[in-house]
Amino acid sequence: MLIYLITYGLGALLIIIKCLQYARFHDVAWLRRSMLLTAAGATTCLAFCIMRAHSAIYGMITNDSYSWQRLAPLAATIGQILIVIGLAGPSFSQLVSSARQRIQTYRWHHQLEPLWTALYEGNTQIALAPPSAAIGDHNYRLYRRIVEIRDGLSAIRPYVAEDTSSTSAAGQIHSAIEQQRTAPRAEKSSGAKIIGEVPGANRKQELRWLLDVSRELQQINRRRTPAAPARDLISSS
Predict the structure, then answer these.
(1) Which one, 3, 40, 81, 100, has the greatest CB density within 10 A?
(2) Which domain holds residue 173?
(3) What is the pLDDT averaged over residues 43-56?
(4) Do residue 24 and residue 133 come from a single domain?
């Protein structure tokens, strides 16, 4: 019994020392929390070993035991649970991070829909695949949508004009799309620059700009959409 408790206690003590030692040098929050949780579980298990060893030694001397020895099984159970959660923490954290990234990517893909739809209605050739086709994962679909929006902006660039009345890229793009539908095909670019467009921007900057433009374009479409005629509530007699 005592050999088992000594071996168990030394293992728990080693876990405590190593977890506390390496937790100080890690900047990753979830990994540091997992180590601290594992150390807390090992501390509880070490307390179990001390209580059991004290009970065994005291029992051999006096043939009696303390009443608080009933807490030893509870301490062992809690300690093992904390150790299991702490060791499994990195895997759970990666799953949570992956799920969060998938949700965020889906939201970005959905938020770009107003801009993509407006450009697609003006030129259906920008679609690399049918809109209803579920090809690839969420990251690929977001990347494909950004590429299609780029092609759509390139298609309306000949119709982009220096509109002094437009104070946003969404208004400028909306006017260019309307011009594309009504005017004859333009062969050369107008040379006008879309407001806020940054040539050579990285993907994060470009995505942020496209999301802002898409939200503004959605607001423009809502303002310019005619309201449905009200129903005549007067019943004929």
Answers:
(1) 40
(2) 102-224
(3) 88
(4) no
